[in-house]
Design brief:
Blueprint: H1 19-44, H2 51-84, H3 89-120, H4 128-160, H5 163-186
Helix pairs in contact: 1-2, 1-4, 2-3, 2-4, 3-4
Length: 192
């Protein structure tokens, strides 16, 4: 199962108010990739990764190194600014927490990714118990983060965006994805 860098094949098109659909699709894809990450680590107990597990590890690396980071950038550019100056202190606090979560998820991923890369390459040299513990922390933070966004922040942001703002958000998200795709194609597939 190969995941594209656009969540569930969703890309906001210029002029389309589909930006939140892309963000929602990325959450669904994130949950799938978190499940796959957990299963990968569980499978490492049975010995070195087989060919299929190495492929899954490569997909996980691509997703959390590229797609998830792009998703966080979209939220920080478009969603969070709409809510940071809210009159509701709970909303403001939630946005601040989510921004901090992005930082910690990035830190956590940078700590996990070398071991996942080793698994993807069929190499050892990583501490399986430390990897398991790190993945558990990453999974918990990611699930809590998504739940807060979907239950509180996205609904609040949706009511604050008018049609023109949604279209602009979709255009900007689409343009960044096109630019990344072009950089990736020009660099032989390694740009993020």
């Amino acid at each position: 199962m190969t995941m594209s860098s656009s969540p569930a094949g969703a890309t906001p098109s210029a002029g389309s108010p589909a930006a939140f659909e892309v963000l929602d699709a990325c959450h669904r894809q994130t949950i799938v990739m978190l499940e796959r990450l957990s299963a990968l680590v569980d499978g490492l107990d049975k010995g070195g990764p087989d060919r299929e597990a190495r492929g899954v590890a490569e997909e996980i690396i691509r997703f959390f190194s590229q797609t998830a980071r792009q998703h966080h950038e979209d939220e920080e550019r478009h969603v969070f600014p709409q809510l940071e100056d809210s009159d509701d202190p709970d909303i403001v606090q939630a946005v601040l927490r989510l921004k901090q979560d992005h930082h910690w998820m990035d830190v956590d991923w940078r700590e996990l990714s070398p071991a996942i890369a080793a698994a993807a390459g069929g190499r050892g040299g990583y501490d399986l118990e430390a990897l398991r513990e790190g993945v558990e922390i990453f999974l918990a933070l990611s699930h809590e983060h998504i739940a807060l966004e979907e239950s509180c922040i996205y609904p609040q942001a949706r009511v604050r965006f008018d049609s023109a703002a949604l279209k602009q958000m979709g255009r900007e998200m689409a343009e960044r994805r096109r630019a990344r795709s072009a950089r990736k194609a020009n660099s032989g597939g390694t740009a993020s």
